[in-house]
Amino acid sequence: MSHVGYVLGLADDALVAAQRLGEWCSRAPEMEEDIALANIALDQLGVARMLLTYAGELEGAGRTEDDLAYLRSAHEFRNVRLVELDNGDFAVTMAKLLFLSVYQRLLYDRSIGVGDERVAAVAAKARKESAYHVDHSSRWVVRLGDGTEESNERMQAAVDLVWPYTDQLFEVDPDVHALSVAGVIVDPSTLRPAWLAAVDAVLAEATLTRPLDSDSSVVRRGEHTEALAKLLAEMQVLHRAHPGARW
Amino acid sequence: MSHVGYVLGLADDALVAAQRLGEWCSRAPEMEEDIALANIALDQLGVARMLLTYAGELEGAGRTEDDLAYLRSAHEFRNVRLVELDNGDFAVTMAKLLFLSVYQRLLYDRSIGVGDERVAAVAAKARKESAYHVDHSSRWVVRLGDGTEESNERMQAAVDLVWPYTDQLFEVDPDVHALSVAGVIVDPSTLRPAWLAAVDAVLAEATLTRPLDSDSSVVRRGEHTEALAKLLAEMQVLHRAHPGARW
Amino acid sequence: ADLQGYFDTIVAADQKIEPRDWMPEAYRKTLIRQIAQHAHSEIIGMQPEGNWISRAPSLKRKAILLAKVQDEAGHGLYLYAAAETLGISRDELVEMLIDGRQKYSSIFNYPTLTWADVGAIGWLVDGAAIVNQVPLCRCSYGPYARAMIRVCKEESFHQRQGFEILHTLSHGTPEQKAMAQDAVDRWWYPSLAMFGPPDGDSTHSERSMAWKIKRFTNDELRQRFVDMCVQQAGILDLRIPDPDLRWDEARGQHDYTQPDYDELMRVIKGDGPCNQERMEHRRRAHSDGAWVRAAARTYAEKRAKNAV
Amino acid sequence: ADLQGYFDTIVAADQKIEPRDWMPEAYRKTLIRQIAQHAHSEIIGMQPEGNWISRAPSLKRKAILLAKVQDEAGHGLYLYAAAETLGISRDELVEMLIDGRQKYSSIFNYPTLTWADVGAIGWLVDGAAIVNQVPLCRCSYGPYARAMIRVCKEESFHQRQGFEILHTLSHGTPEQKAMAQDAVDRWWYPSLAMFGPPDGDSTHSERSMAWKIKRFTNDELRQRFVDMCVQQAGILDLRIPDPDLRWDEARGQHDYTQPDYDELMRVIKGDGPCNQERMEHRRRAHSDGAWVRAAARTYAEKRAKNAV
């Protein structure tokens, strides 16, 4: 994966996560949660915009954040499948958010001092937001896991459902590894032990069982579920209907 | 409403109904019902194609069925709001189908001998299909209405939900009235008493209560709910992404 | 009698009634009804604009819209909190919304059919809300007045954003301009209707004025709104869909066509274009979330017990 | 012993075993497993293609696709009916699908990412199914053989439609052609894997051959499929993604690269790209429909009681 591909991966994770979180708007279980989910969506969207702009510059073909968000098709998106999965019930959304945000927090934390100064700058801004996302989703996973019988069942089912998609966060890629060895960026595959420890602690407090790891080979970034094309159909429809228009 | 507008109205009712019914595919409560709903969707789609082709000819601007289906935006669609409503649960789908198909059967029946020979020909073909749609949806409305306590509640709620949208089927339009007086087409506003009698009979057998008519002024064709633009975003996405391509 | 006298003095002196002060039961009830309706409107009002978050045409607009809808949830929350100071719980109020005993602003029963509607809501609906609400910042009931100060600040920000959306559209492609004009055409009269029935038909109005809950009549506020919009429509290069709109030199105000108050009554009664969808959406969110709220309560109880 | 002898004679004579005939318990069980898996595959198989009904790029294609997916439901139904002749109910079989005790064809655990996948499924997946199923039309069990005759007729129709979709794409715009090639690249090896593990690793195979349930080995069928595709790929002007594919003069067949059987095993075990989605979708349809089926039963019972 190229340097641009790497940056696009981080950007697209955040963008697609924001799009999914935005779908909750006016549908959350509590009004406070409507606000919280919108907040997190805004944080993710903010990171996505900075990184997409940067990716466009790295690419050098003059593409803006909107060109990249609205005019690529599904197979050009670099996000992990985890973020594109349907929201499901609130438990599924919290499982997705926990797994993603623990990953992002680790990634941003370690990216503070990397050679790619643009990524480092975004990470410096995003790490605090990310810590809040981890905190928020952890609290809910614990409340739901250790709440009622129904919420425990739903939360466990959600963890089971989402777990197989976490593999892809830690994709091993030789180019990324080389860039990481050169100190330019952080290799996500190195984050797995810390990620697992953090997630395990939350699951334990939530009285939930961590699913067994599958022995499936890791699906590479760029491979998607059927959900992404549908998500993009909605996200891009207006922009694409008016080529070249300003908004 | 012009003659073209009238034909487009019938076509779009059928097209949007087909699109919604198609969403049930692989999701129906029974496998037999998967087949039945696909059948009805196919019938509606068939009528839509014939009428769209005809509307394109009447319009005289060289637009094909696909141009009309895929390249108009929501405000150009002439369907009633009833057909664009979300599928909801199976009861809502059956309420929508009953109300629509009783209307279509009456309209097609009376259109057999009209002066517009193209409409008459489509009606002659569609009336039998329509009778099946009425039969199928009536049976379900009765089974659900007179089934379990839960199904009765759901069916009543569905009828209550959909009822206010039936007004629009019987829109009074002076141009359509004039064309109807000239024997060219059937004025849908004249179908109301027969429609009400047929629907009432089904609701009575289903032990359901017909909602009171609202005193709201009738919403004209061309006015839509928020649902239509989203439906079209999905329906048109692929076609629009490849301008001019053949499929 | 003493209490009533004290209350009257405070109100007359343009000072604030606070939660622990004595107040007439009718004053309390009026305020609860009004603040609750206002809070409900913020919550239901998330839906029409929320409808376009997923499809916002640029990432910047998406961010602005998300933040705006989030603000509305926030307004809802502090308005419910203001109502709670009057001795009713948010849960009770939400129940009354859900089962239809309390209303929300009828404006939110109109659909958002295009992106331009997001602009029109910002410009016209938020604009009308501000005209309505600015005087409420001086309302005699302290918690409500303070909530309104905060709300108004954000609303005027929203109104500017709506104006900006329409301005961009009306100076964009012909399709964009048409979209903007169409939105203004559809939202204009419903926005005028937001000020309520004409003064002659307005119940409660006089008493609310006496209590200094209300400071201006419906028609005064409506006129102020029209005058404000005419000037801004010029900058927007959009037409207000009222052929009889004209400057009345003598009055120093615009003459304008009244909205269709029969339509307003029908929409209030439940027969608007989206009443069903809005209520259904709210009810579903509430019932889908029941298990989550139950889990949170149970968890909190367990923790409380363990803490003992 | 007499019964076994009669059974053996019928099978040896290439005649049909019918539901009321005696049959070995293992024969019955093998058939139930195989027919059920086949029926389940038709039902689950509705999902990947059903995914594109809403987005079919022309109304004609939408109609063809709807009809095709409907046919699959039909196949499912008559295959369940064939299984029922062996003394098991459709409800039991559906339960076994839902709780994972019975499998469906692993090919449906791959996603349909573009419209071209609908073409590739028609051409390759239905093509492989036909190669598998044509010999089953001569299967020793009468009801299964007769069901397969009907299924095969429709499948070959579907295969032609898939071919036609790919042909149109590959002779369309460069984007369409790329989409078609990408789909063939993704579906080729999974389609080869549809014939099951290589003969050496195939359990049950020998016994099924003896019983004339199966007529050819997995590898024989796979070879037949490859030979068929190579010629058609030429007409389609699409490349089969196998650099080692070549005509072997001596064998009179093509040499080709075997699919990744480890992947096949992983997908069968549940770790394919869409196993979870497919099962979840089926379970949800089943549970969402429970109240409808209950209502239909209750209504029928009421009517039966009133009829007495």
Automatic annotation (TrEMBL), chains A, B:
GO terms for cellular component: cytosol. Gene3D superfamilies: 1.20.1260.10. GO terms for biological process: phenylacetate catabolic process. Coiled coil: none annotated. Pfam families: PaaA_PaaC (PF05138). InterPro entries: Aromatic_CoA_ox/epox (IPR052703), Ferritin-like (IPR012347), Ferritin-like_SF (IPR009078), PaaA_PaaC (IPR007814), PaaC (IPR011882). This is Phenylacetic acid degradation protein. It comes from Dactylosporangium siamense.
